[in-house]
Amino acid sequence: MPTLESLPHVLPEVALAVTAAALFVLEALWQPRGRARRVGFPLLALGGLLAALLFLVASPSSAEPRFFGGLLTQDPFSTFVRGVAIVATALAVGLALGSPSLPSNRRVEYHGLLVLLALGMCLLSSAGHLLMIYVAIEIVSLTSYLLAGFDDRGGRSAEAGLKYVLFGGVASGVMLFGFSLLFGLFGDLSLSGLGQALAHSTTLSTGAGRWATLLALVFVLAGLGFKIAAVPFHMWCPDVYEGAPTPFTALLSVGPKAAGFAVLLRFGTGLWPELATDAAAATSALPWLLLLGVMSTVTMTVGNLAAIWQDNLKRLLAYSSIAHAGYMLMGVVAGGREGPGAVAVYLAVYLIMNIGAFAVVSAVDRSAHSEDIGVYHGLGRRAPLLALAMAVFLLSLTGLPPTAGFVGKLYLFASLIHHGGFWYVLLAVVGVLNSVVSLYFYARVLRAMFLESAAGEPAPVSLANSAAALAVVLAVPTLALGIFWQPLAAIANFSGSLF
Amino acid sequence: MQQHRTGPAWGQEEKLIPLSHTILLSAVLFAVGTVGFLVRRSAVMMLVCVEIMLNAANIAFIAFARHHLSMAGHIWVFVVITVAAGEAAIGLALIVALARERGTIQVDELRSLKG
Questions:
Q1: Domain range for residue B88?
Q2: Is B72–A239 a contact, with Cβ atoms under 8 angstroms apart?
Q3: Which of A122, A290, A335, B115 has the maximal Cβ count within 10 Å?
Q4: How many independent structural domains does chain B possess?
């Protein structure tokens, strides 16, 4: 579809771009003080995000899913992921209200960058062209580097930002080289064009051509694996999560990961269209699926085993988010209609429970000024409501009923088992075993909160802030969706299809 | 993408410098960048090595674009140069912030985040 006719389909992105520009320009021209600065700008950011969400819900359906000459592809899956990205950003704006980890004189920049990040995630989840994938990944990355280094108390945050920029630069460089190899081998840059070239090209019939293609795919996987924090491209993750301001860490653990999964799924179904319809027959995609399967196994195992040794809650949640990337990769491997549907369900569940867990960490951090597991001792008596919410999130992250996390994991395992085949069922078994391991370190936090008493005179934990309020609010759907999971089933039905 | 053949000069140039030579140059540059990133411990030098890797990909894109007679590869390079400039600006800004707080830019000495 040509440019002008495409515009009505990207109104959410237009709204985000206008909001971000408005935030930066108003800050520079007006330089507001006092309440306008504290409340007005977050409200403006929230308004822009709400507008984007409304445009997304009301976006016109189109028979032709490719826009701007094939740069963007919109399908139900990308619509869903764009919604997840916008909601996650709105929650991060809410978490940031009054947070001490953000310098008060640079609040406006923080919100402007958050909205830009949302724009990048939206573009990334519907990118259908290698150039668009690259540019969108860089929009997400560049804004993330800045936001990770935003906290100016001590040097922890700047260190996190620098480590992120160095790892991210290498990952995108490697991915770029992979793209150039794909372009050289098949002479096309759009995913659909590459898919046709792969199906008809003689390149794959020679040994050298096959190895070159495999090398290009591994290079591309390095860049995408970095965005979803999959092993072995996860090294940045714990350090960046620990050093970045907590409201942003909450978003970083969900938003870019969701967009990364969207682009990973679209890359696979673009190059091997049969993956989207009949996963069982997709033997031509074998090296890609094999790479993803191995990556999934290693990612969840390393993430869960490393999390056992962590005493800092943010690092523990970082390794837990690595393990969850491994779980979601199972859905990508399963393919077909069921795999993407399961990934979408898990993303929705993960959005609620993980941002909820980070909201509790943020609330405790505001009074205790620490994320060490020691400050959680006796939280069950000092702040019962907050501790109860945290317990719900942790049980959900483990995947125990009656929480939403259980339903999410059920969909992922079911997609693999319905697919059938020894290796697919084996992957599901590895996933179940990993969930059992994860119970150990999540239960450690539960024990600290409810069974151990605090040493000395701990600071009282205040509930009167946005983080604690959000945590309690998010605990409700985490429980409710575990009992009434019709909304999740609707998500799986809606977003299972990719073009 | 549309393909244009802009006269016989294209084919003759390719004979002068074969595709394999340009690709070899690009691969060597990429290896230099990767090894440099792994060996160097100064944050600025690591950033320079990332730029070398990006430019290795740029050379490959230009070479393949001429080989396939496609404009897409040429356009790509301009996008990469722009993005790389932004990345360098952000990287250097973070390095300056860190140098002010710690007085060092050696990544080995950045240990306040255990990892």
A1: 15-109
A2: no
A3: A122
A4: 1
